[in-house]
């Protein structure tokens, strides 16, 4: 027999018309309608003898309503827990001792021999159970491993997030500190510019005040002379003629006047054009924000035999005779070059070299692993970044190809600025400490340690005998004037 109602629909029809819940201890009225025992009792107390069925409105006696036993059994049956899964075959009533691998279900021995599963792969239940437990354990192990990896990933992400926040906080603090320093430097330059303008104006005003005082003295004396002449002109004819020759002569009166050219118009020239204020201040600030000049010394072990080092290995010049130095495997043998003792593999660095009036020289950096024996390949391809002067007139950057540089004048002090991480090597005309003039910038991907290199060029029978000098730092941002040793 097929059922026409589902369990939810049946449950809906087993609700009390009064409380709208599933019947509890149902009782049936003479009219045939049923109610919960507690609901019917409440209606009887409230209505008394006038009790009527809430559904059909027929008068009934609430006290004598019998329990609806059949309805109560149906409700109890619906409330019972589901029957446990059978442990025996429904068809053969034998124990479920096998597991069909093809259909994925438990069967009995007869099902595997005679029933629908006779051609299927079957496994005893204990073996299938053990195998599935092992698979479940492996799955749980994989799941735990994945959970561990996810937890480690979460930890790395959290640490990364924390590190980024900490680094951003530190960098923000550095930015604020650097901008405070920039504001301080700008205020210093502002005060310096204003002081220069005010000092120049004060000097000019003082000169004009002196001229003005002199001219006002002459003006006063001329006024006095004019007043005396007016009084004299009012005397009688005889007195006028008698005293006329005793008056101050015209020449003496003229001498009381300011001499021609006494007043010289003065123009206010502050030494700084309004349109150049930003550029000039920027140049001064650029020099101040450069790293402190490096205190370099030359390495005798790398010097060519003809090079003479002096002044604590800060001065080098090319001589005519080889120096008495032990032969070193790291020295140059075919070029008049020497390296500094200290190299750079990171950071920002600035140093200066005094070239004076030397006619031939080359400066820059060299990779520590670059070849030093034989003829040098002076180019970035061979690990050398150089700028130099040839025959006292041609400045050139040793790139690929070489670049002729339009340098104004002949700088006697060359500044070199290395920014390793940015891959920049910049040369400056550093004769004016507050006005560094860029000469050339190399762009490269630096690898390994870089050493400052000085190439004096050959002696040329005295025509190129002047030395190259590594000056000692004279205070960050304010290098002293060029000083050259006597040749």
From TrEMBL:
Sequence ranges of Pro residues compositional bias: 469-487
Protein name: E3 ubiquitin-protein ligase TRIM50
Region entry Disordered, spans: 465-487
Domain B box-type: 84-125
The species this protein was found in: Erinaceus europaeus (Western European hedgehog)
Transmembrane portions of the chain: none
InterPro entries in the record: B30.2/SPRY, B30.2/SPRY_sf, Butyrophylin_SPRY, ConA-like_dom_sf, PRY, SPRY_dom, TRIM/RBCC, Znf-RING_euk
Sample GO molecular function, one term: zinc ion binding
Domain RING-type positions: 16-57
Coiled-coil segments on the chain, per record: 129-163
Classification via SMART domains: BBOX, PRY, RING, SPRY
The keyword Coiled coil appears for this protein: yes
Residue ranges annotated for the B30.2/SPRY domain, each copy included: 276-475
Keywords noted in UniProt: Coiled coil, Metal-binding, Zinc, Zinc-finger
